[in-house]
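User: I'm new to structure prediction. If I give you an amino acid sequence, what do you actually give back? Let's try with this one:
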Amino acid sequence: MATTAEKGPEDWQIDSDLRTLAEAEEIRKDPKRFKAALARAKEKIAALQAVQEEADEDKNGKAD
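Assistant: Good question. You get back a string of structure tokens that encode the predicted 3D arrangement of the chain. For your 64 residues, that looks like this:
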């Protein structure tokens, strides 16, 4: 196994991805936490869709 000094420039990304995957698995195994995360995702998606709709209206000259 490589020591910190021997790691390549993309090793930090691999380590970060590994932590992310491990945390995702922990979330999936916790029904309450997983449900809350999905609910928050739906809120964020709805907000982004509203922004997109407003941008489309502005682009088409339908706003104000």
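You can read the tokens as a compact description of the fold. Here is one thing that stands out. The mean pLDDT is 90.
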